[in-house]
Amino acid sequence: MSIELERRALSDKPENNKRNLELSAYFTIPKLETAHRQIALISGMKTAYNKKNYLLANHFASKILTNSGGNGKIAEQVCAILLMIKSCFTQYIRKLTGYIGSKNQSFR
Q1: Based on CB atoms within 10 Å of each CB, which residue in 51, 79, 88, 89 is the most buried?
Q2: pLDDT in tens, 22-41
Q3: Helical H runs in 16-71?
Q4: Which domains does the chain have, with CATH numbers?
């Protein structure tokens, strides 16, 4: 619990982003009851998404879906975030490759 309290005490300054994400990830490691673990994973996923660390957010989202069995309101919210993450990845790849989006072009 002290990990989460320390994470919340950090300010939102950009220089604290790395530490904030580290603490979010550490908080998901302890063996907690499933419900409490879900809360830690959701918190970590939202923190990572808000800090634009989509790879970590995707990792947390996958663990949430695994724990919940893909059922319920939480799973729906996680799937929505996964779709946003996929969109961000797609935009990033298009930007890197110079892909414009014409129907005749494809990734090679």
Answers
A1: 51
A2: 777 767 776 777 788 888 88
A3: 17-27, 34-50, 54-68
A4: 2-97 (1.25.40)
